[in-house]
């Protein structure tokens, strides 16, 4: 009797398991480097240069703005706001980008605010990709692009940035990671719907130059393709580099959706507020996805970000504007980090923008016991071993490549250098001690 019940319940659970398998369109997307490495950091408590976030306070006027919202006599700031974006925030975003793009952006129809840049990417991809559409993704890529395209029924087509031969003996710059023109041209065809661009780039820090953007723009126009431009690091660009918004290139406004993040813009990654802007005829599809998924974002955070934008818009040309000062603050951290990575024998790529640095760790391979970790790719084994035995965490860049190209990234690690100086000094010390066998 008991055995029969057991058998029956086993059969039932097998039936349930069979029926409720993960839908096929998500197959291959089960693993997330963030889930795994954030848990690893919690378990081993290393010095964490993994996930990208600052470990010191954001600008005071930004956190004050949120505190003021909480204390505001306007109780409606705690209730639902307009679905496509809080009115004060879409106005500020439209005002800022109208100025930067050099055309009037309509806050009602050409801006959508979202739950982080993640949701802006999701609404754009799901709102525009149809079954069988091809989407060109430049590698390495922010890892959510691929699963988002697949869940919309699209077909990702990958093209890697390749590190060109460096004859000078100098350290490589992110500008040395380049697209092959013929390879890119060869990916465009009648089924191509979208290309996803990310500048400044995560993880390389590449800031795409005008000629590179023109190549992409001309192909978009030739093949009638939409460009999704992920510009979440738009304000973090090291001199003499300049961020160019591809939407400003001739004929590109009408086929570009640009994505931003308050998390990156104001160094408040936990606020999870993003936006997309573009022409109304493209934005309607995003609005449709958004209205049926989250409908409306968080009102207090939107109000606080609106107030923060207003303050920066009023001082855009001044050094104290956070959009200008953040890069100087980070340039010193970038230089310090590249120096200590070199000192220990790694070969970093010097980023032109963003707050990540990739470094070739392979000269140190003999100092690491990769055999103790079971992962398929060496960068996963290296970063896990370093977290557990040396106490320093980085991110394995193969997470940002399609399966056939992961071999291109196995010798690299990504470090985030948006950390207080004291912690960067600690990281330097950890690596120095390890190099000379003290830990
Ligand atoms: N795009 C890129 C390139 C990123 O690095 C990130 C990580 N923040 C996002 C999008 C997502 O941003 P958010 O945290 O605002 O969702
Ligand atoms: N964009 C951040 C990074 O690349 C955070 C990613 C995340 O938390 N999913 O580290």
Describe the structure.
The protein is of the alpha/beta class. The protein has two domains: 26-55 and 323-435, Alpha-Beta Complex (Aspartate Aminotransferase, domain 1), CATH 3.90.1150.10; 60-314, 3-Layer(aba) Sandwich (Aspartate Aminotransferase, domain 2). It has 14 helices and 14 strands. The chain is globular, with a radius of gyration of 23 Å. Bound molecules: 4'-deoxy-4'-aminopyridoxal-5'-phosphate and glutamine (GLN). 4'-deoxy-4'-aminopyridoxal-5'-phosphate (PMP) binds at residues 116-118, 142, 198, 202, 230, 232, 261, 263, 269, 272, 274.
Mean pLDDT metric? 96
Q: Briefly, what CATH class of the largest domain?
A: Alpha Beta
Radius of gyration in whole Å, from Cα? Answer: 23 Å
Count, helices: 14
Strand order of the largest sheet: 2-10-9-8-7-3-4
- Sheet with most strands: 7 strands, mixed
Q: What general form does the structure show?
A: globular
Low-pLDDT residue intervals, each spanning 5 or more residues: none
Per DSSP, what share of the residues sits in E-state strands of 2 or more residues? 5-15%
Q: In CATH terms, what is the architecture of the largest domain?
A: 3-Layer(aba) Sandwich
Hetero compounds: 4'-deoxy-4'-aminopyridoxal-5'-phosphate, glutamine
Gap between N and C termini: 60 Å
How many β-strand stretches?
A: 14
Order of helices and strands: HHEHHEHEHEEEHEHEEHEHHHEEHEEH
Secondary-structure-derived class? alpha/beta
Identify the CATH homologous superfamily of the largest domain. Type I PLP-dependent aspartate aminotransferase-like (Major domain)
Give the number of domains.
2
Measured as a percent range, the helix fraction is 40-55%
Assign the CATH topology of the largest domain.
Aspartate Aminotransferase, domain 2
